[in-house]
Amino acid sequence: MKAVGLYKYLPIDDPQSLVDLDIPQPNHPTTGHDLLVAIKAISVNPVDTKVRRGMIPPSPTTEEKEKNTPRILGWDAAGEVVESGSDCTLFEKGDAVYYAGSISRPLGTNCEFHIVDERIVGRKPKSLSFEEAAAMPLTTITAWEALYDRLSLYPDTIREKTALPPLQRPTAIMPSTLSDDDTNKRQHHPLSILIIGGAGGVGSIAIQLAKNLINQSAVPSLSPSLFSGINVIATASRSESVEWCKKMGADYVINHHKDLKSQIKKVAGIDYTDYILCLNDTDSHFERMKQLVAPQGKICSIVETKAPVDLGGILRQKSATFVWELMFTRSLFQTPDIVTQHHLLNTVADLIDRKKIKTTLTDLLSPINAENLRKAHRKLESGTTIGKIVLSGF
Ligand SMILES: NC(=O)c1ccc[n+]([C@@H]2O[C@H](COP(=O)([O-])OP(=O)(O)OC[C@H]3O[C@@H](n4cnc5c(N)ncnc54)[C@H](OP(=O)(O)O)[C@@H]3O)[C@@H](O)[C@H]2O)c1
């Protein structure tokens, strides 16, 4: 089958960094929970570029080195089930699916046929093409787990907190600096989340999910009621990325290259944000997040740090929470709740089909070959991507 892979972990400008290959096709699911999927479209994430550069595991296994087996990258995919394993109950042959795979399996999605555990697979949104669907899964799982599983942004919790009299709320309100419009908005949206890196792949879906919160008791049922009662302050630094964040539903957009505190005060009239979701450069944003998070607030980061982070000082004084999100945790450790990712992808497919959430696809390349994949990796590595880059067809 056709595939794109690598033998050496190289910078993207090296033509050998990603090469066209012909590799043996997997004929059947490997385990009882596996699906064999015919890939129609894939999307590229920073994890693809980081593994390709040898920055993060999986680095080559001894067997791969000895046998000179190529590494096939790729996690996001949309496609059609060709065969389901003997223990599968969620999908069958012919089903259209979208998913983000597992970092612990050797074969990625940059090939014609792929094997994946059905418990981390969702049904493809009916209203989206395979290309539009392939843009979504990895970033959707990340944003969903960050907002719900790590930051506990449940509508009931938010309603409970906002029922407190204003002086007892963790976020200080400064009405004198607000216009009438802002004051009205503030009264109806008293809690706030700062999303650092709003226009990227994860930010684009995180903004939308934060404006469409649902009670977890509603999952996995379809058509749950939605709650938009939290202010979303996103960051972006260029006019096109600012516009994109607004299109995704951000209430305010501020510039991550400028002082965040004074901008937040100016646009939203607040001194602290209750929640912070860091989607870029945790090292350089960490000190600012410590200052900005509200007493008893929560910070979640999805980006690894180069240096250890200091959880003491003002964070301790504020009894603030800092928590990591890694969307591969459930598949990597085969946690008992691994099927949660199947349910959340189905719930988001439902929200997409109800027109509450939009695809984040912005750039489509075809076919899936080494030349186009190198283009996609180069663009991602520039750090200026808006939404998601997708490739389709072999
Ligand atoms: N832990 C996990 O499970 C997980 C999952 C997915 C991704 N990640 C990681 O999360 C990061 C973001 O992923 P992504 O797919 O959203 O990336 P992306 O699409 O490449 O992000 C691009 C965006 O980053 C913004 N940006 C650039 N420099 C920034 C800075 N200094 N501060 C804030 N924003 C900045 C840019 O906005 P402007 O052009 O407006 O500056 C651009 O729109 C990557 O490091 C990725 O590896 C982790």
Name its key features.
alpha/beta, six-stranded parallel sheet, seven-stranded mixed sheet, binds NADP nicotinamide-adenine-dinucleotide phosphate, 2 domains, Rossmann fold, Quinone Oxidoreductase, Chain A, domain 1, 394 residues, globular, 14 helices
Explained architecture:
With 394 residues, the protein is an alpha/beta fold. It has 2 domains: 191 residues, Medium-chain alcohol dehydrogenases, catalytic domain (Quinone Oxidoreductase, Chain A, domain 1, Alpha-Beta Complex), CATH 3.90.180.10; 185 residues, Rossmann fold (3-Layer(aba) Sandwich), CATH 3.40.50. Helices cover 31% and strands 21% of the residues. Strands 3, 4, 5, 6, 7, 14 and 15 form a 7-stranded mixed sheet that branches. Strand 8, helix 7 and strand 9 form a beta-alpha-beta unit. Helix 4 crosses helix 7 and helix 4 crosses helix 13. The longest helix has 14 residues. The chain is globular and about 60 Å long. The chain starts with a strand and ends with a strand. About 5% of the residues have low confidence. The chain binds NADP nicotinamide-adenine-dinucleotide phosphate (NAP). NADP nicotinamide-adenine-dinucleotide phosphate binds next to helix 1, helix 4 and helix 7.
